Amino acid sequence: MADAQRCEIEELVKRLVGAGNVAGADMTKFKKRMKYDDCRYYAMKFMLVNVKKNWKKEKQPIVLNLLKNLDMTNCKDGVAQLTKFHFASSSAITTGKPAKLSLVSEHKRLYTFIWLEFLKAELPAQIHKEVLSHLPNVMKFFTSPLQLSDYLTESYNQGGVISLLALNGLFILVNSYNLDYPNFYDKVYALLHPQIFHLKYKARFLYLLDLFLSSTHLSAHLVAAFIKKMARLLLTAPPESLLCALPMIRNWLARHPACHVLVHRPGNATEMASDPYDSNEADPMKSKAMESSLWEIKYLLNHHYHEVVKEVMKFDNLSAHEQDLSDLFELKIEELVTKELTKVDKGIAFNPPGLPQSCVSTELWQLF
Questions:
Q1: Residues 12-26 pLDDT 10s
Q2: Is the CB of residue 170 less than 8 Å from the CB of residue 157?
Q3: Which of 80, 168, 169, 299 is a good FRET partner for 5, with 20 to 30 A between their CA atoms?
Q4: pTM
Q5: Which DSSP symbol is given to 322?
Q6: Which residue spans within 278-324 are E strands per DSSP?
Q7: 249 near 231, Cβ under 8 Å?
């Protein structure tokens, strides 16, 4: 009986991989079955053999989709034996001495091996990005998440967006699993450049950056370097990014009161020429950020968009309480323009975020 039920799951996986279709009735059935421990066990046993031998490059998208839908939520820490079975015969198998299909350790072993075999393949850029985005959600189900350290390190070393996406997994390994990863914050600091505000993954990067600087135990000199570097980048950032980054900097200042000197330093530098901060220094601890000031923030008082000016003025009275940024990471310029156009309909003075007031014609904007 168990062989027949195992074959049912194997045939389901075969049909999905053969069709290469991530939608349809078979995929819906697969997702439902993977919530059951016995079905997931049979699927993983079959996938482990085939991901090694038979599933080539053209099958990678559907295989990744199958991996992402292996529901491991029952395999929690502290749980040794599984009991959520779809087939009645699975319960009979586990009567007495626990069978492998009921052991959390066995499920984690199979799950880890499948993922590691998949990651050995030469993955195209898009699949690589999807994998890096998904791994932080599932690495806790690996027998040892540290087994991902080489893959994530090699991914970071590729540069660009791949580096950005690899940082989340590396941070989890460093923070939760004691990975010895020298100069982690130096590598994050190196990713701060003007292009970050124009990347597809901008929102994710800003979220991760805030997460990386969430600890109040970080050195004030280190945090000051990030604050200063971000402030410098804001001089050329688009309005929607400013409305997220300015509150984020205030949150960093709230977490690290020792950095308030950057805002309140008497006789501080007022322009780049007299600023001791070295933006070209790769080591944030040597950048002299703590000797500088946030003249860049003050400069934004001249910004053409009034909402940006409002955010800048909040630096005059820094709060000890952090602002929720969850609605700001994904903020888009279209939302700001729509907001301003709504004001026009109500007869309120109009100042669109994308242009200086001197370039604005209300009649022109009403055409859109």
A1: 998 888 876 666 888
A2: no
A3: 80
A4: 0.80
A5: P
A6: none
A7: yes
